[in-house]
UniProtKB/TrEMBL annotation:
Keywords: Membrane, Signal, Transmembrane, Transmembrane helix. Belongs to the ITPRIP family. It is a single-pass type I membrane protein. It comes from the Eukaryota. It comes from Oriolus oriolus (Eurasian golden oriole). It is found in: Membrane. This is IPIL1 protein.
Length: 279
């Protein structure tokens, strides 16, 4: 993985792919030509195109090529499955993810697949998730979704069986629809509070107080223009969450840094918070 920050707080990477010599396998009798040491003409004549040419642009893994390749794979594989006799698969256009719709009679649901590359043995990945227009197709965005999912699983194991922490998040996320504040901001606030408020205080009887705590934390973060990323620079994560070594010494990343440098964005965010309160 090659880091390409481009001056933004979002950590972006390029995934460099290198071919390995397979001459030793060929000598062992395996029917394989070495893409490094055989002439290109012979390779074209005797071998199918390598995945390097199919999935990469130059030496870098290409998001759009990967999506296109997987679309073709799904289309062929689906026709071989018995479910294809009863369900209809419709592939949806998408540049950085694989979206398809499954429908049968009046039933229908959407599936979106995000591709990712793991950073070492950690729970941090770089992913193909959709982003702003104009980002190169060889750019992969760092994602913390796996680490965050492990945190919520850890909380679920530790919390009482009647904990309502997920219902708090679900309700406020639903209320946020159409407001403008991102659901990831809300998720970050909830994770911070789960790390500080005893889990025995997230039961149904505590529901209203916890909602007030979440809104108060969000309000304070907006006023101070400071909301630390939950994973980067957090020293209080469960031991089961595996992070790259540089994460353990990193300074906390402020998700509201743009509010400190853009007064209009700060005014807009405060207005969105007021709209949230009146829902």
């Amino acid at each position: 993985l090659e880091l390409d920050t481009a001056g933004t707080p979002q950590r972006n990477f390029c995934v460099r792919v290198e071919q390995l010599c397979t001459c030793t396998r060929e000598q062992l009798g395996q029917n394989m030509l070495c893409f490094l040491h055989h002439p290109e003409e012979e390779l074209r004549r005797k071998q199918d195109p390598s995945l390097l040419h199919t999935l990469c642009t130059g030496s870098y893994l290409d998001v759009r090529k990967t999506v296109h390749w997987f679309y073709r794979f799904v289309r062929v594989a689906w026709s071989l499955l018995p479910q294809s006799c009863h369900w209809r698969l419709t592939l949806q256009p998408s540049g950085r993810s694989c979206k398809f719709q499954l429908s049968k009679d009046k039933e229908s649901f959407m599936v979106e697949m995000i591709f990712g590359v793991q950073q070492g043995d950690s729970d941090i990945f770089v992913g193909s998730q959709p982003t702003e227009v104009g980002i190169p197709s060889t750019t992969w965005l760092e994602t913390y979704a796996v680490a965050e999912a492990k945190f919520f699983r850890h909380i679920s194991r530790q919390a009482p069986h009647d904990s309502w922490h997920c219902k708090c998040l679900q309700l406020l996320t639903h209320i946020l629809t159409g407001v403008g504040l991102s659901s990831y901001t809300l998720k970050t606030v909830v994770m911070h509070l789960l790390n500080t408020i005893p889990l025995t205080q997230w039961r149904r009887r505590d529901f209203q107080q916890r909602l007030m705590d979440i809104l108060k934390y969000l309000h304070c973060s907006l006023e101070t223009k400071q909301l630390n990323h939950f994973i980067i620079g957090n020293e209080r994560l469960p031991m089961e969450i595996s992070l790259p070594s540089d994460f353990q010494v990193a300074e906390p990343l402020n998700l509201f840094q743009h509010l400190a440098t853009n007064p209009d964005a700060h005014t807009k965010a405060r207005h969105e918070y007021i709209c949230l309160l009146h829902r």
